[in-house]
Design a protein that fits this description.
three-stranded mixed β-sheet, eight-stranded mixed β-sheet, alpha/beta, 16% strand
Length: 312
């Protein structure tokens, strides 16, 4: 990476955690190179990859001249990987930090849309955009509905009052981290939920910019999708138990209660997903059965999460 002192500090620092992503990188890197916004650099965090990820990223950064690869000696997970890059970005005085994932593709105007949103809303600390799923099976399509219900394409721009924004398409003013701290590293999933809750409690304004579109590769395989939603359920108690957390008062603390109400809760979460999507994509109704089974895995994870929560 070029010496920042000789060419100025880019306004936006992109942070992307990466692990064993050699198959996803061509799409991601191609979309970054095509960005119409130029005043940015990227910090890739190689989370102890075991494939060619590190070599691919190093070659791309050398060619492009505005990227750096931070290589971690052992696997730490996405939140800790992001934090490693955030510390580097803050030390280099980038005013804005933009988050994407390795299995994402951004449109040419996505970064520009994030920058414009922060100009339009100078008091906003966090801006997110819609996430559109990339899938090849009905399972993948349902996973997209179940995962991105807070950021559906078509949702109007404006203030985010209760819901969170996913870290696969989020930009944060650097000053925000002085108040919120970094991402919670003990969470395997839901760190974006916890971060948005912490920001909201601190009075930091969160906005949604409908033009800042990001594409995310959804989970096309049934086992992978269920495992993801089960892990999500396990961490729900640690995230939702905090003050003013959206739906926090509805999260059961007892593992016995979670078992007894697992099916009603699975349907409740399913109907919430449908309600948040249906005005933007009525096809979501066709996948209600698959979404329910994913949310059933979520409530099964809640049982384990309740046991772990009480043991803290």
């Amino acid at each position: 990476m070029r010496d920042a002192g000789s060419w100025g500090v880019p306004h936006a620092a992109m942070v992307i955690p990466v692990r064993n992503a050699e198959n996803d990188l061509p799409d991601l890197l191609g979309s970054l190179a095509a960005s119409t916004y130029q005043d940015w650099c990227v910090y890739f965090v190689d989370d102890a990859s075991e494939d060619a990820t590190g070599r691919i990223l190093a070659a791309w950064c050398k060619e492009q001249g505005n990227g750096e690869v931070l290589t971690l000696p052992q696997r730490v997970g996405p939140p800790a990987a992001r934090n490693a890059a955030i510390k580097k970005a803050l030390a280099n005085n980038h005013p804005l930090i933009v988050f994407h994932d390795s299995d994402c593709i951004i449109e040419a105007h996505t970064l520009n849309a994030h920058m414009t949103a922060h100009e339009i809303w100078p008091h906003a600390g966090i801006v997110g955009g819609p996430v559109k799923g990339i899938h090849h099976t009905r399972v993948g399509r349902a996973d997209g509905y179940a995962s991105w219900f807070t950021s559906p394409p078509g949702r109007p721009s404006g203030r985010v009052r209760f819901l969170h924004l996913p870290t696969c398409n989020m930009s944060v003013k650097s000053r925000v981290f002085e108040t919120t701290g970094l991402f919670r590293e003990e969470l395997a999933t839901g760190e974006d939920v916890a971060f948005c809750h912490a920001a909201r409690r601190a009075g930091i304004e969160i906005k949604f910019a409908k033009e800042a579109l990001c594409f995310h590769k959804d989970r096309d395989q049934w086992i992978e999708a269920l495992a993801h939603h089960r892990r999500w359920g396990e961490h729900t108690h640690h995230v939702r138990a905090e003050k003013d957390a959206f739906l926090g008062s509805l999260v059961l603390r007892s593992s016995r209660a979670c078992r007894l109400l697992a099916i009603p809760y699975a349907w409740a979460f399913t109907l919430l997903v449908i309600a948040l999507w249906v005005r933007y994509d009525p096809r979501v109704i066709l996948d209600i059965g698959l979404i329910y089974r994913m949310k059933r895995a979520f409530t099964q994870g809640m049982v384990t999460g309740a046991m772990n929560f009480r043991a803290r």
